[in-house]
């Protein structure tokens, strides 16, 4: 691959003295985990929030939608800005913006202010292309797969912790504590980043194609808005179809704009690399499979025992059923780099998709007690850890160093889109099967089956990823 016109990468520089790479990795992993926690943390509190601010429960779901839209739009832009102006510097700015959003939400008394705070919090998705780039600049070629693998699974680990933690907060504290606790932890992340993460000196030259950014943002917003609201508006409604069509039109115009500018926000030639686009497609499918669990398991457990399948569990107990997923993701993620060193990133991704598929197959045939559900979520954690860590390494090794932020940022967007599609489909299947007493077991079974199909397709697309070939990305970095 060749660099874009008027772009270059400054030489790699060593990690400054006194800043041990292991400490840097710890901070980067902590930041990824905290952002993962933030994604599902507010969901169980939506009924309480709606009551306290005086809005309908359907209106409160904008706290989820705004977060999702902001994350998808901001991620590639922040990744590009990090490549231009320094990844560590942009990481500090991004964390500061997320803190501002958390403080706003913690003190807000209206839905409008809460949504504004969630938009700022969504910017936190931009930390992933930044931390991947920092890891690439900091670690040697031998240690880089381990570092990137560990950071990759923090999203899933954090999401699992977030579901459990949210139940405890909702059952015992006011919803404002969700945001105050986030603020305290994020402030610690900001101080740790300043103290332990080396300043970035590996940058490209050029500018940001802001016209392209606006077109891309509008296009993603249309698509994600259609997907996230489809269960409420109806998949065939004018609002859903209009948002989806408008999003596709804007994304088409964005593609044209990116091809004509000297400084594209996303290099289309990079996205056309076979290893990149097949990995991104796999990310959509694997993301859909993973996040379906967060939509399906808690309501399944909370369903009354009178339904014949539910356990009548509390919010806290239902969240604990997802704890095995967080634990196995952490355990496997810690060794993901070593696993990929032995079998390769592609094989790890194939295995991750297949193992995740087996978890939903188990849920489809055995969910009459809490034990098989705990086993299934634990197995799902193993699969997602193998898959997520492998995707980031495949992308990093397939692109030149100066495009790490852009490429990994777009992969994060692919996972975000997948999570939105998976969550929306699961919610729609539950809603369509609902009776007067709530979702029926057939709705859950249909959703489990759709997840099995999505992860089977994910396995096939992972198999289609070209075998790894040496690229400019493999030039040794300085530790």
TrEMBL record:
InterPro entries: MFS, MFS_dom, MFS_trans_sf
Descriptive protein name: MFS transporter
CDD domains named in the record: MFS_MMR_MDR_like (cd17504)
Domain Major facilitator superfamily (MFS) profile per the UniProt entry, residue ranges: 24-470
The keyword Membrane is annotated on this UniProt entry: yes
Membrane topology, as annotated: Multi-pass membrane protein
Entry keyword set: Antibiotic resistance, Membrane, Transmembrane, Transmembrane helix, Transport
Subcellular location as annotated: Cell membrane
Transmembrane segments: 20-38, 58-78, 90-109, 115-135, 147-169, 175-196, 208-227, 233-254, 275-297, 309-335, 347-366, 378-400, 412-431, 443-465
């Amino acid at each position: 691959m060749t660099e874009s016109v008027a772009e270059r990468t400054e030489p790699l520089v060593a990690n400054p003295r006194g800043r041990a790479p292991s400490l840097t990795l710890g901070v980067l992993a902590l930041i990824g985990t905290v952002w993962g926690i933030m994604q599902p943390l507010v969901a169980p509190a939506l009924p309480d929030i709606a009551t306290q601010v005086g809005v309908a429960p359907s209106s409160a779901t904008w706290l989820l939608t705004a977060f999702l839209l902001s994350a998808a739009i901001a991620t590639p832009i922040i990744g590009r800005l990090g490549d231009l102006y320094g990844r560590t510097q942009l990481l500090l700015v991004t964390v500061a913006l997320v803190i501002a959003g958390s403080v706003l939400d913690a003190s807000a008394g209206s839905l409008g202010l809460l949504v504004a705070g969630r938009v700022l919090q969504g910017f936190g998705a931009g930390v992933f292309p930044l931390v991947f780039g920092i890891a690439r600049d900091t670690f040697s070629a031998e240690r880089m797969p381990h570092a990137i693998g560990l950071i990759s699974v923090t999203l899933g680990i954090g999401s699992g912790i977030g579901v459990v933690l949210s139940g405890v907060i909702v059952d015992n504290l006011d919803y404002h504590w969700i945001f105050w606790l986030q603020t305290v932890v994020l402030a610690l992340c900001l101080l740790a980043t300043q103290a332990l993460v080396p300043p970035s000196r590996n940058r490209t030259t050029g500018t940001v194609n802001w016209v392209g950014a606006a077109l891309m943002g509008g296009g993603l917003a249309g698509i994600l808005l259609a997907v996230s609201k489809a269960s409420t508006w109806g998949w065939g409604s004018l609002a859903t179809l209009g948002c989806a069509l408008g999003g596709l039109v804007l994304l088409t115009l964005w593609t044209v704009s990116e091809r004509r500018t000297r400084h594209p926000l996303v290099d289309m030639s990079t996205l056309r690399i076979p290893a990149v686009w097949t990995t991104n497609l796999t990310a959509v499918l694997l993301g859909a499979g993973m996040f379906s669990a967060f939509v399906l398991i808690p309501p399944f457990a909370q369903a009354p025992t009178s339904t014949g399948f539910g356990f009548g569990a509390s919010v806290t107990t239902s969240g604990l059923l997802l704890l095995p997923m967080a634990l196995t993701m952490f355990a496997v993620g810690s060794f993901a780099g070593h696993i990929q060193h032995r079998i390769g990133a592609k094989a790890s991704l194939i295995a991750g998709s297949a193992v995740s598929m087996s978890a939903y197959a188990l849920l489809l045939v055995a969910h009459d007690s809490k034990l098989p559900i705990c086993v299934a979520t634990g197995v799902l954690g193993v699969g997602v850890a193998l898959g997520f860590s492998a995707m980031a390494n495949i992308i990093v090794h397939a692109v030149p160093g100066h495009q790490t932020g852009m490429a990994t940022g777009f992969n994060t967007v692919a996972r975000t889109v997948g999570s939105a599609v998976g969550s929306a489909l699961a919610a729609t299947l539950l809603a369509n099967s609902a009776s007067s007493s709530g979702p029926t077991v057939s709705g859950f079974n249909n959703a489990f089956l759709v997840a099995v199909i999505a992860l089977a397709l994910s396995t096939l697309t992972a198999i289609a990823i070209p075998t790894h070939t040496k690229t400019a990305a493999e030039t040794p970095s300085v530790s």
